[in-house]
Amino acid sequence: MKILLPFLCAISIIVGTPSLADATSSKAAQHQAQEKRGKRKPLTTEVRFSIGRNGDLLSVAVHRSSGSRKADAEAIAAVRRAAPFPKMPAGSPARMEMRIKIQMDADALGWAGK
Fold it and tell me: CA-CA distance, 77 to 42, in Å (whole number)?
């Protein structure tokens, strides 16, 4: 082990591992970027959809908009991608309507508004 450690240190110097200062400044930049993203309020779209007894998606629409057409469209697309849903138990109504809130981070998705 005593021989291996100096050997590994020599390899890291030759290969060119980043210095502690470089690594620290990179971490600081990442942290600042995360803080900026965290300051923006998430986009929340409330979606209303109905499911048939067999689990098929019958309808989907925005019930309450997030204020961003792109976010609203993505929320609808997410519900459509989730279909078909599990079949409902025997004796269930022919149609079940639900409302859900879908929250998205605009920065993470690369959106900045409408």
Answer: 18
Write the pLDDT tens digit of every residue in 21-51. Answer: 555 566 666 656 666 655 678 999 999 999 9
Which residue type occupies 5? Answer: L
- Which domains does the chain possess? 43-104 (3.30.1150.10)
Residue 96, token pair as written in the block: 């079940």
pTM: 0.61
Report residue 14's pLDDT band, with 50, 70 and 90 as the boundaries.
Answer: very low
Distance, in Å, from the CA atom of 65 to the CA atom of 114, rounded to the nearest integer, reads 11
CA neighbours closer than 13 Å in the CB half-sphere of residue 12 = 10
Q: How far is CA 8 from the centre of its chain?
A: 39
